[in-house]
Amino acid sequence: MGSALGAALERAGHVVFGVAAISDASVRRAGNRLPDSEILPVEQVALRSELLVLAVPDTELAGLARGLAGAGVVRPGTIVMHTSGANGIGVLAPLTEIGAMPLAVHPAMTFTGHDEDVARLANSCFGVTAADEVGYAIAQSLVIEMGGEPVRVSEEHRVLYHAALAHGSNHLVTVIVDAVAALRAALAGPGLLGQQLVDDQPNGLAERLLAPLASAALDNALRRGRSALTGPVARGDAEAVAAHLAALGSVEQGSAAAYRAMALRTAQRAGTAPEVIDLLEGR
């Protein structure tokens, strides 16, 4: 995420003079995306920065903030912006106490380390938390410069904001990966012309079969909400749901358990027949 944001800021006219990168993968990404920037120790980057972006795992953010504050390398007036979704500006308190301006600016986007990361920042929303209106104005300007849409998130609601995004994106990946695995098992064997159609490589037949359906379901959900629900659970077809559970269980019990949990939530959303809920609750 850090190198993607750096590239976006550089395109907007900011000078990204230095990057602190530790792992080999981080160094490669920095070299590819920010070829004019130096790879420097974090203390040197912090000492020279007017805007310091802390793009580190959530578990390391508090320690990094304390370490930078203790080292005295962040000058008063420096804008310190972290990219954690679950944290607001409180985690930057050690730096705020020595005169830094704290910002929490989280792009609501997934980053995989591939070329599409930078392009996906454009038109993404960014969850923004600041200490005051001056901070919000600066954060808003930075986000707009990167092509994104700033969205104000209060300090006390950062965890809820992040949980919602994780639920809607990370768990979607798990559901799709489970569905692809089940489709591969269902379609294994010769095709209509005798060729082997299904393998374990990405972008195969299972993915092509699922892609338009999943894309349409996502689009319908975002545009129509609960009324987009279709299928046997929404119809109250307990017999079909029981058959699904048995079939998925024959492939992988974990997938069947996930189906049961999501089907129960679907039934609650759809207000489906009581016998379906009884089945899914094991009654």
Q: Could you characterize what this model shows?
A:
This is DUF2520 domain-containing protein. Residues 125-266 form the DUF2520 domain. Residues 2-107 form the Putative oxidoreductase/dehydrogenase Rossmann-like domain. InterPro entries: 6-PGluconate_DH-like_C_sf (IPR008927), DUF2520 (IPR018931), NAD(P)-bd_dom_sf (IPR036291), OxRdtase/DH_put_Rossmann_dom (IPR019665), TM1727-like_C_sf (IPR037108). The protein is α/β, with parallel strands linked by helices. It is built from 13 helices and seven strands. The protein is elongated.
Please give the CATH architecture of the largest domain: 3-Layer(aba) Sandwich
* Average of pLDDT: 93
Oligomer designation:
single chain
Number of separate strands: 7
Q: Give, in order, the helices and strands.
A: HEHEHEHEHEHEHEHHHHHH
Shape: elongated
Main sheet, how many strands, which sense, barrel? Answer: 5 strands, mixed
State the helical fraction. 55-70%
Structural class given helices, strands, pairing?
alpha/beta
What's the total helix number? Answer: 13
